[in-house]
User: Which sequence fits this backbone?
């Protein structure tokens, strides 16, 4: 399954460079039935929240403090993404293709299985791992990425009044340098998780996150340049000063 996830990352990356995923500003007809975006987020992210929790509960006899910290970090992100984000997002009545929800359900289930199995059933982490430089650096990356992701989502949210569906130019903070700080934060977050767990499934997830979000950042950036005549020309798409 880990190998499958690496292969899927390569396929998804190349595909998305040519075809933007048809949701949000890139939504278009011809991709089958759709559901409201807020419900799509809740539904498709739920397995990411639940599967790893089930693995933790099923393997509770192996309880380790370190694994519990991994679970808390993971669930902090997914409680936000599954239960908070869909409730506060503005424009969440827009359509979201069910086909994408279906793919996300498969991915989130598979990703929960490989991470849950590895972290709670296969691998033993001693308490001294908490003082390992990989844990400290990875946790710092995870928490700062999470903070950037939540902050950037929030800036976008407040560009709209409740009920509005129009687009504006986000400004301030990392938006001075890149078009998609929310994706940047998410990529840093899961790269941090891969480092703090030092695990093959963590790496597979981080690689997939990049493969999924980097092409989308390029597509969003291009969209902004095309649709806002006064869009700042020195802004990059995803990585400040680089990409
Ligand atoms: P976007 O930045 O495309 O959109 C986020 C929200 O902000 C949407 O509601 C969107 O509305 C709105 N929005 C975006 N730009 C503007 C603007 N200029 N003016 C007003 N409103 C705007 O992000 P995604 O929807 O792709 O992703 C949402 C979150 O999910 C992100 O934090 C992302 O990191 C995460 N994510 C993680 C993935 C992973 O692989 N781990 C995969 C995909 C997303 P609208 O929908 O109408 O465009």
Assistant:
């Amino acid at each position: 399954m880990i190998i499958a996830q690496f292969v899927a990352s390569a396929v998804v990356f190349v595909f998305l460079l040519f075809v933007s995923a048809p949701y949000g500003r890139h939504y278009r007809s011809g991709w089958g039935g759709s559901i409201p975006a807020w419900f799509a987020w809740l539904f498709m992210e739920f397995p990411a929240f639940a599967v790893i929790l089930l693995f933790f509960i099923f393997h509770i006899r192996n309880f380790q403090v370190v694994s519990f910290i991994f679970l808390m970090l993971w669930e902090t992100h997914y409680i936000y993404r599954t239960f908070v984000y869909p409730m506060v997002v503005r424009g969440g009545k827009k359509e979201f293709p069910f086909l994408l929800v279906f793919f996300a359900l498969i991915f989130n289930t598979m990703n929960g299985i490989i991470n849950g199995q590895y972290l709670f059933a296969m691998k033993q982490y001693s308490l001294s791992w908490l003082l390992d430089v990989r844990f400290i650096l990875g946790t710092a990356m995870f928490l700062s990425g999470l903070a950037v992701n939540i902050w950037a989502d929030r800036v976008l949210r407040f560009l709209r009044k409740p009920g509005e569906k129009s687009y504006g130019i986000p400004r301030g903070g990392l938006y001075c340098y890149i078009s998609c700080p929310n994706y940047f934060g998410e990529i840093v977050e899961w790269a941090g998780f891969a480092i703090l767990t030092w695990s093959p499934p963590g790496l597979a997830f981080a690689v997939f996150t990049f493969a999924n979000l980097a092409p989308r950042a390029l597509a969003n950036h291009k969209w902004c340049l095309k649709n806002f005549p006064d869009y700042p020309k020195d802004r990059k798409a995803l990585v400040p000063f680089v990409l």
Remarks:
- Residues 24-25, 37, 89, 91, 94, 149, 153, 156, 159-160, 165, 167-168, 170, 182-183, 186, 209, 212-213, 220 surround NDP (CB under 6 Å).
- The CA atoms of residues 138 and 195 lie 5 Å apart.
- The beta strands are 34-36, 95-97.
